[in-house]
Design brief:
The chain is α/β, with parallel strands linked by helices. The protein is built from 14 helices and 17 strands.
Length: 427
Amino acid sequence: MAVKLGLVGTGTVGGGCIDILKNHGEEFKRHYGIDVELVRVCSRNPEQALEHGVEDIFTQDYQDILNDPDVDIVIELIGGTTVARDVVLGALRAGKNVVTANKALMATYGEEVMGAAAEAGKEIAFEASVGGGIPIIDPMKHSLIANRIDSVMGIVNGTTNYMLTRMAEDDMPYADVLAEAQAKGFAEADPTADVDGLDAAAKIAILASIAFNSRVTINDVHAEGIRNITPLDLEIAKDMGYCVKLLAHAHRTEEGIDVRVHPTMLPLNHQLATVNGVYNAIYVVGDAVGETMFFGEGAGSGPAASAVMGDVLEVARHLQAGIPPFVGCTCTDELPLVPMEELKTKYYIRFAVADRSGVLAAMAGVFADHNVSVHSVIQRGKKDGNTVDITYVTHTAREKSVRAVLADIAKLDDVLREEPSVIRVED
């Protein structure tokens, strides 16, 4: 008997799922013995849905899917945390399994969703919520569970990775690269979630929860974006043997979980340094397996639909075999979160200052006052002849000490009021 599917959302990913079912449905049955049938489709955009030839099973009310006793799996692809939350929780409470690609929902209400799934005795699968088509959640919940995961670092936002790549390779300023990314469809009209690191923060919250078996929500993640990065910063970084990536970090430390998103300078020989354009990569370190990296396209109709349908087929396989849900919420530990101000790392800091004597000495005094040791100083003149860029790279320092340095240097008369560039350095 076929496992019956109800799809909510027919945008880029939803349309991709319909296409996969049409193109490969018979192969799923022949190769794997998995018989799935799409029996209901809901969308707020009827024209978009009907382009995929689903007029016979179309509805504009998702309750029609939740109330349909024949539907075994609900696929939620509308995004957001309002209606989508109602769809997912309503489906679970109606006794249906759920597949979702909703990173914001799982990073904000993951505990509630997982609890509802456990109470209903149903599966909730969300591989496509992180990394698009890259398999990462399933490996972390199955293949790597014999390990203690010590670190997860990732380039998990293709938009910002594309922008930083173009800025570095073609010396393009931020505003021009953003406009190009929007024109190509890589960035939204409102790019805030991408360029301010919020999209990456949701993804690393999900990965950290799985990696460390401890609940991490998006509100726990310190997030900084790429708005203040300039081609000059990328040029200086390259001269120093580094590249700059917007990295999502999650590390197990003696003090607890260190989880954050921000621009990071990586050595050019690091595995993540070669990941350019719209590609994503996630670097996982386990005590037994050592270093692993998962690489691929992080967005788009095909990659995301691939991950969604992979979940659908796996849940369908369990249903057909009579296998109950066997991997639910694993967040049984309550590890403390390390405050961002306690972070200890190296820092790249670039200031624009007046080209006058005594400036370097005054700035050096501020670093000394806060016990921040400087590894190197680079001075570059500007075309106007009146200002210079002064770049510091520190030895390992504490975040709160560096913040105090920035605050005091901003008060100096010869320091221009434009925001300094601050990039943390990962060796």
